[in-house]
Specification:
The chain has 247 residues and is α+β, with helices and mostly antiparallel strands. Helix content is 43%, strand content 21%. It has a five-stranded antiparallel sheet with strand order 3-9-8-7-6. A three-stranded antiparallel sheet has the order 5-4-10. A hairpin with a 2-residue loop joins strand 4 and strand 5.
């Protein structure tokens, strides 16, 4: 029914599954503002014949489409979330997406233009990277202020969800290209040490406390000086711009 699956469970409760965005617009490749969410909720209520606003949420997925990017280069460079590597999905020579499972949510980045084209849902005019968070943890949803369907259209949820997207994206790591010719021998050594999987053990040794701090600082300066492509900086800028259109 209009991109929404409705079923009745063993307790006689109605359970709706799938995307409110898809229900409202037919696909989730376009901008879906707070007003659009409210309109989709009203439309769903009219379609079902009862007010769905007070229905409880058991799963929420929210994200942003980021345009004007080299999607393949970004997915290739995507490395980890706080040191834990992403699982990447490939088709042919292309990476279609990547995900990271955490205790309370799932983080996904994927080629939205390709996904919609393959599903024949929409043809996006430009390459689009989708950054998305999904959670079934009620405690997590409560922290975002999302316990009922009505909450999805609230300013408080939009603000909390936007901040959460920025925070989670900021914790993602990327393999960046560096121009080594711009670096001194000490800077190269500091970068190699800080990038090593053994650096955590090195820094944990009290005898290396001051040296580890100096190496981190020098490595950060070297990376900033020699960086050729800063994927995270670009993504965060695109995310901020996309979020500003949703209020």
């Amino acid at each position: 029914m209009g991109n929404l699956n409705l079923r009745r469970n063993a307790l006689g409760e109605y359970v709706g599954e799938n995307s409110l965005h898809r229900f409202g617009q037919g696909h989730n490749g376009g901008t879906f503002t707070r007003a659009d969410v409210a309109a989709a909720i009203q439309n769903l209520s009219d379609t079902l014949g009862f007010n769905v606003s007070c229905c409880k949420l058991t799963k929420v997925a929210f994200g942003s489409n980021l345009n004007g990017l080299d999607v393949q280069a970004t997915l290739q460079a995507l490395a980890d979330y706080k040191g834990k590597r992403f699982l990447k999905y490939e088709k042919g020579k292309s990476i279609t997406g990547a995900k990271r499972l955490l205790t309370e949510l799932e983080i996904k980045l994927y080629d939205k233009q390709r996904e919609l084209a393959e599903k024949r849902q929409a043809l996006l005019p430009s390459a689009t990277l989708r950054f998305e968070l999904t959670s079934r943890k009620l405690s997590y949803l409560r922290r975002l202020g999302a316990t009922t369907v009505a909450d999805l259209a609230s300013p408080e949820f939009f603000i909390a969800a936007g901040a959460e997207l920025e925070d989670r994206l900021g914790a993602c790591g990327f393999t960046e290209q560096l121009n080594g010719e711009l670096l001194s021998a000490d800077e190269i050594e500091a970068l190699a040490l800080v990038s090593s999987p053994l650096f955590a053990a090195y820094a944990a040794n009290r005898a290396n406390k001051d040296r580890a701090t100096r190496r981190r600082k020098l490595a950060a300066q070297a990376r900033e000086k020699a960086l050729l492509s800063n994927h995270k900086h670009v993504l965060l800028a695109r995310l901020k711009a996309a979020l500003s259109e949703l209020a």
